[in-house]
UniProtKB/TrEMBL annotation:
It comes from Nitrospirillum amazonense. GO terms for cellular component: membrane. Keywords: Membrane, Transmembrane, Transmembrane helix. This is MAPEG family protein. It is found in: Membrane. It holds the Pfam family MAPEG. The chain crosses the membrane at residues 6-27, 68-85, 91-110, 117-141.
Length: 143
């Protein structure tokens, strides 16, 4: 398997983690409604009342996985299309996924903001390295 195609697996892993966090969000919301902590009507437009802290945290954790990681999916697809993948790109991709999973788990468990921010900044450094490395490679060898 070429390293370019191998970039699919970190993307798949992050996607599956996103699905699991989304499922957790759904379960947390259903429990909150069943317990009477949130009115079902709240979820029509998210303005009719308030939601629990647990719902809000789960919602933010899920939202975080739909924001910056989009740039990760893009760089991986670009690398695959351009057949630029190699073992360093693959290692960086896995590092990014591990960091995002750790950040998500921190968010959904003990939710220490400083720990979460540190892991987030590390993941951003890895993502930046992916983009900058490809940019420099394309500048050096544009054709």
């Amino acid at each position: 398997m070429t390293s370019s195609i191998a970039l699919f697996f970190p993307m798949l892993t992050l996607f599956l983690f996103t699905v699991l966090v989304g499922l957790r969000l759904f379960i947390v919301r259903v429990r909150a409604v069943k317990r009477g902590n949130v009115r079902l009507s709240y979820f029509r437009n998210f303005t009719a009342g308030t939601q629990t802290e647990g719902c809000a945290t789960a919602q933010r954790a899920y939202g975080n996985l739909l924001e910056v990681p989009a740039l990760f999916y893009v760089i991986c697809v670009v690398l695959m299309v351009l057949r630029q993948g190699d073992h360093l790109y693959e290692a960086l991709a896995w590092a990014y996924v591990v960091l995002r999973v750790v950040q998500g788990l921190i968010h959904l468990t003990y939710n220490n903001v400083l720990h979460r921010a540190a892991v987030y900044m590390a993941s951003m450094a890895v993502l930046t390295a992916l983009w900058v490395r490809l940019g420099l490679a394309l500048l050096a060898f544009p054709g």
